[in-house]
């Protein structure tokens, strides 16, 4: 049973505040700080409470939300994105151009970037980073997007050409998350995910100095960061799995920031004058992923029954005020979202009819319902979904995994169907591209090498639309949008997943901390400062 808590006072205006927050993020400058960061005579620290630990300190090998959010402080991608418009803007890459045949990307790089180990960044490091991410042993979050790079051709120290095996007009959308590592380090550690707790050298605003597994990750400001030393000297990410304990630590002054604050905790934080709630636009969406590769969930009617069985609106009202229904795979901020598509209605009688049509008039189960814990209220939502499914005859057994274990099992599931249950409460962060292509390429597409492939069911008609979306983007982006909207219709018709909601992104923090989290949920602390 879901326990209702009245905690929606602030959330009524979140849509307006989040929009304003986007403008703040868009205006956060990449220009160096003329003051050289924090005052030298007083060290400043920010402690961030997070729900789970890293799976690795390898910036190119992390696959989970926590990995990406934390390690974005250690190293940078070659481009950045305007938080308001989603437009790509220069960062380490100052210019990029696609050839007329769409087979060569020409990239110009900055000449003043240094890694934490003292290596000067050049085109050699970019080539080594791409080659490593392309290696089949790595299994990182972006490797599948760069498989089309046949050769990284070095023109000189600060100019490269990416020669492609096929047209890839969208490749630079992923370059923000092409996290760079020095060639010397890559030569030392090779092409497996780095498993050591020793710091991996990046070139970001902070360098990792300690990883106490299961407890905390410690960063110190990098004096030679090419955009200027950040104002916060020391950042600590402290692992506190229980949300109530995270909020208690915040109220006690033991931590300064709590990410993934659930709406039910808002009133508690707002009642403390020393704290504030900061909303951010989340690109994350949660679903019930369904393994469609074998019986019984290869039956369409059974998957449709799951969608009709779940009262998503009630789950949102009682657990996640501020969340938004997702009728299919995309969220409204993404290119290709279909505004005319209505979500499945809650209709348990129709769910029972479909269950009988699927050949299960007496129901099925129990089957494992695997839960990824890193989204707000994941366990509570899973319990509610379990109850709704049971009402129509679909019996499940919930198993909650640690985030790193879930991700590992999800990767192994390509070859080992026993890696997780046939039903999984997980989701997708949007990939920070603001483009529906990312979802269809990395989550829905039938390419077996995709490490984030979570639907485990191939549909050729959807894949054909994905291919057309890629082919039309450079010269006919309007057609790309139409194609992705068509794909959304098919995704819903196939009942590819149990479609749930877009997650509200709420942060609780000390009132005198000046920091607006990124719309793409990246905890970039280089933008933070304490009020004078």
UniProtKB/TrEMBL annotation:
Keywords annotated in UniProt: Signal, Transport
Pfam families for the chain: SBP_bac_5 (PF00496)
GO cellular component assignments: ATP-binding cassette (ABC) transporter complex; periplasmic space
One example GO MF annotation: peptide transmembrane transporter activity
SUPFAM superfamilies: Periplasmic binding protein-like II (SSF53850)
Signal peptide residues on this chain, from the entry's feature table: 1-31
InterPro entries assigned: Peptide/Ni-bd (IPR030678), SBP_5 (IPR039424), SBP_5_dom (IPR000914)
Solute-binding protein family domain boundaries: 87-423
CDD domains: PBP2_NikA_DppA_OppA_like
GO biological process: peptide transport
Protein family according to the UniProt entry: Belongs to the bacterial solute-binding protein 5 family.
Record protein name field: ABC transporter substrate-binding protein
Source organism of this protein record: Jiangella ureilytica
